[in-house]
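Q: Got a minute? One more chain.
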Amino acid sequence: MKFPRLTDLASEVVTSTQAGLPAPIRDLARIVPVHFEAFPSDDIVKEGFEPDILGLFSGAAHGDDPGADNTIPAQISLYLENLWDFAEGDPRVFKEEVRLTYLHELGHFLGWNEDDLTARGLD
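A: Always. Here it is, folded:
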């Protein structure tokens, strides 16, 4: 599937996922930009992330002081070609994995660590 179509599908999933969140979380979710990229950049991989990473939260978590050293605004990146490969070309699986990956990265924005995410079924 071509990247523009993957972007359309992923955007629809993120929008519908946000709509289904409880109001306080939904309001927070809508302020965090979501970027759709084909793959992680070379810089992300050089930082130690796997090239097949599905998503990434960057910036300060909600309620944390971003500090002078953190100039990156809070944002979520979803790597659509990796998600498509993970789904083995199945649009239904792709949509579900976009939803789970988005919620996982949103959890990081909310300040949840990996244990918190696992407890919520978002690992």
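A: The chain has a mean pLDDT of 90.
Q: Perfect, thanks.
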